[in-house]
């Protein structure tokens, strides 16, 4: 692992526990002088020391991970892109490693202000007032965050893993495993026997699942594939049997006065429960390792779709039995990211779209084919990405269908465990595609695909010079 200097975090941890330097050194089995050197950043944290901290103090070592630091650096780079004075990468890394709470607060403030500005601008346009002055995002009258934004940040705060729901779903899957028939049949029978809920089919249309609580009737679309039907049944089971666990998870200040966000979070958690029931943690993790994370083989083994497998892979972060920390995204042809889930810290810009050099967008032009890309971010971190187009919806001429590109990525250091690394030179950093978080916050110079200038640097304009890369020296 790279050298980690975490002196400020160690001092803060010691202060939180009310320990003297000598007492903490004794608890960790270290000499006081060695701990003092760690706290003064004279010595880096080693794996052995991190394990001592985890075992002796019960601290999640993820709090000291390089993945988190990279995510914080990326977030701060975006937040400070238009700062009056350029902030260097070493300065950002120092804040991310030594003062992560400050970094998270800065990123949260930036996102809140940016979201408020976007909503106020959209509101002004809807009212036809195009001459209005730009809104002040710090104005307390600014509109609150939209429900999907609130829920997205809620899931990200949990790193897309909810242990109580995951274990409950795994236990239920174990009960179903020894029974006759398909999982969908078992879930249908359980809903009727345990909850008095009768399942019926309705004509294929816009709704996949419709539950009439007063009549205790669950209607499923007749156009669903077997795996989709099982997922909808499992979602209903989750809403009924995991109601208390879900209620406890959403009982946080974030949703205290926002019923729409609370309901959306409940549905998201019920869907999480369904995914964990169809793809139980232990069985799925073992199969993923055995099959080298071959998504199509995992689809065949568990009878679900490509997107479902990819999404589940991004949730395997059970303490003591964690899988590869994947990031999962779903984008449409216009570049909108409708799903962004991560088991680790990875960010694309929320300002002005993502990177056009990202392989995910090529998937729309090559249906049914899995594309691969080794991509390098401006901070030097390299990732392996795979992408494929997926489509779903009612069959028939003229009926609308949903089409997305699914992207699944991980740090290149995990690539050896993926079948998709076969034949790629993952160690040649020069062969990796240089991408960024988005044009407005990407400082790469001479990028011919740039759509906007980098906001963190003065725009260089020379009327006597025409270059292949747009916006001159700005990239």
Output the number of helix runs. 16
The CATH topology of the largest domain turns out to be Beta-Lactamase
Shape summary:
globular
Structural class: alpha+beta
Number of domains: 4
Mean pLDDT equals 83
So, CATH architecture of the largest domain? Answer: 2-Layer Sandwich
Q: Kindly report how far apart the N and C termini lie.
A: 32 Å
Describe this structure in words.
The chain is α+β, with helices and mostly antiparallel strands. It has four domains: 7-101, lambda repressor-like DNA-binding domains (434 Repressor (Amino-terminal Domain)), CATH 1.10.260.40; 163-278, Orthogonal Bundle (Arc Repressor Mutant, subunit A); 307-437, 2-Layer Sandwich (Beta-Lactamase), CATH 3.30.450; 445-475, no CATH class. The chain has 16 helices and eleven strands. The protein has helices spanning 7-17, 21-28, 32-39, 47-57, 66-79, 89-98, 100-126, 147-157, 163-177, 183-195, 226-241, 243-250, 259-278, 281-290, 295-302, 306-313, and strands spanning 198-202, 209-212, 217-221, 317-318, 321-322, 327-331, 337-342, 371-376, 382-392, 402-411, 433-434. The strands form three sheets. The protein has a six-stranded mixed sheet with strand order 7-6-10-9-8-11. Strand 4 and strand 5 form a beta hairpin. Helix 2 (21-28) crosses helix 3 and helix 9 packs parallel to helix 13 (259-278). Mean pLDDT is 83; it is low at 128-142.
């Amino acid at each position: 692992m790279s050298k980690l200097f975490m002196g400020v975090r160690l001092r803060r941890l010691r202060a939180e526990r009310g320990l003297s330097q000598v007492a903490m050194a004794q608890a960790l089995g270290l000499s006081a002088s060695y701990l003092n050197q760690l706290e003064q950043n004279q010595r880096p944290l080693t794996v052995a020391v991190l394990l001592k901290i985890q075992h002796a103090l019960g601290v999640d070592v993820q709090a000291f991970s390089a993945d988190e630091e990279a995510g914080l650096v990326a977030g701060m780079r975006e937040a400070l892109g238009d700062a009056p004075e350029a902030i260097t990468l070493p300065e950002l890394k120092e804040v991310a490693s030594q003062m992560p709470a400050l970094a998270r607060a800065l990123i949260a403030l930036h996102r809140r202000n940016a979201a408020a500005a976007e909503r106020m601008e959209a509101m002004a346009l809807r009212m036809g007032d195009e001459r209005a002055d730009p809104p002040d995002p710090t104005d307390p009258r600014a509109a609150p965050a939209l429900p999907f934004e609130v829920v997205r940040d809620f899931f990200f705060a949990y790193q897309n893993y909810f242990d109580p729901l995951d274990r409950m779903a795994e236990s239920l899957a174990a009960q179903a495993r020894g029974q006759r028939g398909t999982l969908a049949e078992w879930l249908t029978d359980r809903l009727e026997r345990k909850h008095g809920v009768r399942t019926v089919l309705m004509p294929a249309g816009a709704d996949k699942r419709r539950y009439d609580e007063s009549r205790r009737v669950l209607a499923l679309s007749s156009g669903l594939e077997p795996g989709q039907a099982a997922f909808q049944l499992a979602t209903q089971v989750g809403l009924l049997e995991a109601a208390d666990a879900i209620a406890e998870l959403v009982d946080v200040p974030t949703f205290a006065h926002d019923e729409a966000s609370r309901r959306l979070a409940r549905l998201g958690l019920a869907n999480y429960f369904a995914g964990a029931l169809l793809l139980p943690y232990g069985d799925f993790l073992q199969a993923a390792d055995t099959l080298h994370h071959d998504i199509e083989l995992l689809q065949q083994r568990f009878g679900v779709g490509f997107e479902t497998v990819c999404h589940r892979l991004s949730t395997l972060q059970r303490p003591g039995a964690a899988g590869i920390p994947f990031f999962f995204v779903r984008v449409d042809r216009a570049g909108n990211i409708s799903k962004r889930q991560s088991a680790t810290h990875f960010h694309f810009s929320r300002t002005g779209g993502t990177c056009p050099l990202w392989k995910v967008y090529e998937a729309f032009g090559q249906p049914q084919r899995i594309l691969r890309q080794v991509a390098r971010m401006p901070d030097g971190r390299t990732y392996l990405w795979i992408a494929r187009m997926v489509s779903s919806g009612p069959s028939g001429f003229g009926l609308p269908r949903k089409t997305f590109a699914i992207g699944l990525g991980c740090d290149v250091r995990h690539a050896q465990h993926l079948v998709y690394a076969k034949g790629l030179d993952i160690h040649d950093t020069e062969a990796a595609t240089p991408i960024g978080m988005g044009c407005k916050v990407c400082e790469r110079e001479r990028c011919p695909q740039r759509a906007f200038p980098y906001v963190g640097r003065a725009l260089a304009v020379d009327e006597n010079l025409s270059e292949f890369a747009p916006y001159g020296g700005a990239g």
